[in-house]
Design brief:
With about 325 residues, this protein is α/β, with parallel strands linked by helices. The chain has two domains: about 170 residues, 3-Layer(aba) Sandwich (Rossmann fold); about 120 residues, 3-Layer(aba) Sandwich (Rossmann fold). The chain is about 30% helix and about 25% strand. Strand 7 and strand 8 form a beta hairpin. Helix 3 crosses helix 4 and helix 5 packs parallel to helix 8. It starts with a strand and ends with a helix.
Length: about 325
Amino acid sequence: MVLVYSDNKKLGFELLNKGRELADMLNKTLVSVIIGKDDEKDAEEYIYHGVDKVYIAETEHQEFKVEEYTEILINVIQENNCEVVLIGSNKSGKELAPRLAAKLKTGCITDSTNIYLQGNILFAERVVYSGNAVAVEQFNSKPQIITIPPRVFDPLPADEKRHGDIVKKKFDVKKSSSKILDVQEMRSEGVNVEDAEIIVSCGRGFRKKEDIKLVEELAEVLKGKTVGCSRPIAADLKWLSEDHWIGLSGHKVKPKLYIACGISGQIQHIAGMRDSGTVVAINKDPEALIFKSADYGIVGDLYEVLPKLTNAIKEKMK
């Protein structure tokens, strides 16, 4: 069987796209697990998005606890003889997957961007060396555990006519001696670049913090209202919070339109926005690397280009 798990429902639906494809090719059942809440509506949604069987695993913990969650998944994997396990590569998934692999004495491929079968052999691709190469990896043992980042796959359309099994079960797992003493939410400006359809990003080409208003004005007229940035703006200068940071160590995005303003185009930044639909680059250096990743390029001083571009779009929108 093929098992899909993520504590983030949206990411879980994205994984189901590839999970359904692999299950069909292997002629296997697609299984998913919901841990920590008894919610049949969520289980039904998973079925509508391609799952054949959903386990609702009861647990006393309201928050994610890696030791118990690992034991629950081990029980489901062994009970269903799962050969492939896809786990969402968010904060909890990155903690869960390697622990699960170690317990099962098997391998784990992290942050895969593509998964496919050749014959009966499963291959996974992942970006390495800061985006300069793609590694193609395979397993020597089963189950084959792979983590997948957000936005790699699009969710399948929901089919409310699909039917599947919902299994509610309390698994007998050993309680861990570790305790969750406190959970503090990270301070956020409410910016979600990962879900934005239009992003206007700023880079080191801006001379001072106040000039970022040029990007904000362009984002506003495009009805996108989402501002991104490269690493120096968030990590070094602190002009924007890390909520805006797009790149290998920041957020990975997949908007329909991405406008890069004053961004040189180092590979670390490209790794975060390479899946964008249409990319527009604005830079005064005609040799800037960003133009190699752009569909459209404007060579010019952003302080002259941005106001004119914003005004032109305003007129067009009217």
